[in-house]
Design goal:
Blueprint (H helix, E strand, L loop, with lengths): L1 H22 L1 H4 L2 E5 L6 E2 L3 E9 L5 E9 L5 E5 L9 E9 L4 E12 L4 E10 L3 E7 L4 E4 L8 E5 L1 E6 L7 E4 L14 E6 L6 E7 L16 E4 L5 E11 L2 E2 L3 E7 L9 E4 L3 E2 L4 E5 L8 E10 L17 E3 L3 E3 L5 E11 L4 E10 L7 E2 L2 E4 L2 E3 L1 H17 L4 H14 L6 H38 L9 E5 L2 E3 L3 E7 L6 E8 L5 E7 L5 E9 L3 E11 L2 E2 L6 E6 L2 E4 L2 E4 H67 L7 H32 L1
Parallel strand pairs: 1-11, 2-12, 21-27, 32-39
Antiparallel strand pairs: 1-3, 3-8, 4-7, 4-9, 4-10, 5-8, 6-7, 9-12, 13-14, 14-16, 15-17, 17-18, 17-19, 20-22, 22-25, 23-24, 23-26, 26-27, 28-29, 29-30, 31-33, 33-36, 34-35, 34-37, 37-38, 37-39, 40-41
Helix pairs in contact: 3-6, 6-7
């Protein structure tokens, strides 16, 4: 059974390989170009030829377009085309620039060519500076098939790497205790040189410059065999020396010093899917650069900011920096806050550090945080949200129609949010004022005493060779709901690091301990939350009975984002959420009242409208009867011999006016009443 399964797997794999090869055989054996290799060392000042070699892989090629780049600070192009070439027609004459480090040319082969090692062109360079010179093809290079369609067949380009070194020593043998390897980069700006001469020397002449092959002058600097240079700038420096023997100056020796004391470029740390997420795994992306020695590696550390009694304990190994590449996946994260710290380290050991805070939320109430209320990816800060709820509450109160109930609600609201503080709160505030007044005066005394202690310590430890620990990272601004941490390096390995943390308000000082590892790296993470306040932080190295001077001081602020009741802590987010809930309940009650009021008002208006209709009908009926009586009176007056006396005429006119006035007056009143009922 097992052998049968294996046979099936082999047959399927073979079929896949055959299909892959037969799908597009032209692309499997596509053309490639490469740069020739150089045998032997290339010294500064030497010239060397590099050929561009074309392999058509059995097909006919009729045109090539080549774009190259080269390091202009290390090599210089003398001639772009030397010797024989398969190109017979230059579409564009070879162009080059030693300023930009670019070479470009296009050529045609009218009859086409099929070759495995056709020379397209030969380039002659001169070596200018030591180091690795990479001549590489750009993506814009092309190799066109002789198929009448100009099909690009180039899929593979092999660049050339050429090592350039200083000329062989022709004078004294030079050594450097501070920078022993000429191929490496060093942080130190102070350089110590020493030398030995194989013959008895009557003097030495030496210089330090940026030119790789400078020759010192013929003025002797003496017979001593060492020299120190301080505060060198970043970059390459060259030490040149020659010796005087029997009145004749010998050849020069050149020694390169590579100085890089600058940290890599600052860089952002990007978190996917976001800095606040319910996902238990996140993707960390980072990218920096270094102009001199170049980047060597990245290191990453994840520091949980929640207490050990809330989350599972972290092993010491988990708190060390580990080497990483971008993007880096962090998995199995639990609920809480984390600081993601990423270091970019160059080849000289300089370090640039970036930090991003991440919050892993639970599935329930994940929209609530100390920073605000989250609606999807949109965040509303708590002050704005509370202000919005208060505004809605005020509008709801404004639309409450019943004055007695409005007064009742205002009284309830005023009693809940009155300006009068509870007796216990007022007492605590008074006590806090007394403590602040007491410790405010004490703070100045503490600072004076601390300064004197540091001054005394500096005088005591001025002669010690043990250097204080270097602090590279610490939790600068945290809350009293987040864990404090600090880390860095020591000059010696496996020594004790004492961490001092002093609260400036109370004067309380924490003495904390950590131990540096084999690489001199140390890290400390506190077990519990720190009380709110302003702190100063410093460290000291201890190796046996030897102690270093105190390190520089750093400021640390612990904000209050949680209230503590015994051993229970309530985050500010939950406090705001509780206040918001109270306001929402009040708004709901007001809205229910308004809805009921609107319903009752509509019912009342309906009944009132019905009554008004009945009144209107009665008035219209009465008005019609009155109108009929008046018209009958007028008709009686008109039937008397057809002639009316003056009094009768005035009476008739008055009756007509009264009739019109009654019609207008009653119509207006009925209209007003109807409007009020709507």
């Amino acid at each position: 059974m097992f052998l049968s399964i294996n046979k099936k797997i082999i047959i399927i794999s073979a079929l896949i390989a055959v299909i892959a090869l037969s799908a597009d055989p032209e692309r499997v054996f596509a053309s490639n170009i490469r740069l020739s290799e150089i045998k032997g060392d290339i010294k500064i000042g030497d010239t060397f030829d590099v050929s561009i070699i074309l392999d058509t892989e059995g097909k006919s090629i009729n045109a090539v377009s080549v774009d190259l780049s080269f390091p202009k600070e290390r090599i210089q192009l003398i001639s772009p085309s030397i010797g024989p070439s398969v190109v017979s027609v230059w579409i564009n004459q070879p162009e080059f620039s030693n300023t930009s480090g670019l070479i470009t040319f296009e050529g045609g082969i009218p009859q086409g060519i099929n070759s495995s090692s056709a020379i397209v062109a030969t380039l002659r360079f001169r070596a200018k500076a030591p180091g690795s010179a990479v001549v590489k093809f750009l993506d814009s290079s092309r190799v066109l098939l002789n198929d009448g369609l100009g099909t690009d067949d180039l899929v593979d380009m092999n660049n050339g790497v050429y090592q350039i070194s200083l000329p062989a020593p022709a004078g004294p043998h030079v050594f450097s205790e501070s920078h022993p390897d000429q191929s490496k980069w060093y942080q130190s700006r102070n350089v110590i040189f020493s030398w030995e001469s194989p013959i008895v020397a009557g003097g030495y002449s030496y210089s330090l410059s940026k030119n790789p092959v400078d020759i010192p002058d013929d003025i002797s600097e003496g017979v001593h065999q060492f020299i120190t240079y301080k505060d060198l700038s970043d970059g390459n420096h060259y030490f040149h020396i020659k010796s005087l023997s029997f009145g004749i100056w010998g050849g020069a020796t050149h020694y390169i010093i590579n100085v890089d004391a600058s940290a890599p470029a600052k860089f952002p740390v990007e978190i996917w899917p976001g800095w606040r997420t319910s996902s238990k795994q996140i993707l960390v992306s980072f990218l920096s650069s270094d102009n001199l020695s170049g980047l060597d590696r990245y290191e990453i550390k994840t520091v949980p900011l929640f207490s050990n009694h809330i989350a599972s304990a972290q092993d010491d190994e988990d708190l060390l920096f580990i080497e990483a590449t971008s993007p880096y996946l962090l998995s199995n994260l639990t609920k809480g806050y984390y600081d993601i710290i990423v270091r970019a380290i160059d080849k000289a050991g300089n370090m640039s550090e970036s930090k991003e805070r991440v919050e892993i939320t639970g599935s329930a109430l994940s929209f609530i945080s100390n920073n605000g209320l989250f609606i999807g990816t949109f965040r509303v800060s708590w002050p704005i949200f509370i202000l919005l709820l208060i505004l809605i509450t005020a509008i709801a109160l404004y639309f409450v129609k019943k004055p007695d109930r409005l007064t009742h609600l205002v009284d309830i609201f005023s009693s809940r949010n009155g300006a009068k503080l509870p007796g216990d709160t007022a007492r605590k505030l008074e006590e806090l004022k007394r403590y602040r007044s007491k410790y405010g005066k004490l703070t100045a005394l503490i600072l004076v005493v601390s300064a004197s202690l540091f001054f005394f310590a500096s005088s005591v430890f001025a002669e010690t060779k043990l250097l204080p620990p270097q602090i590279t990272t610490f939790s600068e601004n945290i809350s009293n709901q987040e864990i404090f941490y600090v880390g860095g390096f020591t000059a010696r390995s496996n020594i004790e690091v004492v961490i001092y943390l002093q609260n400036l308000e109370t004067g309380e000082t924490y003495n904390l301990n950590s131990t540096a590892n084999e690489q001199g790296e140390w890290f400390y993470r506190h077990d519990n939350f720190l009380p709110r306040g302003d702190y100063i932080l410093w460290t000291q190295s201890v190796d046996g009975g030897e102690k270093s001077a105190p390190s520089s001081q750093y400021e640390l602020v612990v904000e209050k984002t949680a209230l503590q009741f015994g051993s229970t802590r309530v985050g500010i987010g939950m406090i705001y959420a509780g206040l918001s809930l109270i306001l929402l309940v009040i708004i709901f009650i007001l809205l229910v009242y308004i809805a009921r009021h609107i319903k009752e008002d509509r019912k009342r208006r309906f009944v009132f409208g019905k009554e008004i209709g009945e009144v209107e009908e009665a008035v219209r009926y009465g008005f019609a009867m009155l109108k009929k009586d008046i018209e009958r009176e007028i008709e009686v007056l008109s039937m008397k011999d057809g002639v009316l006396t003056k009094d009768e005429e005035d009476r008739k006119e008055m009756l007509l006016q009264d009739l019109e006035l009654i019609r207008q007056k009653i119509g207006k009143e009925i209209t007003d009443v109807r409007n009020l009922s709507r």
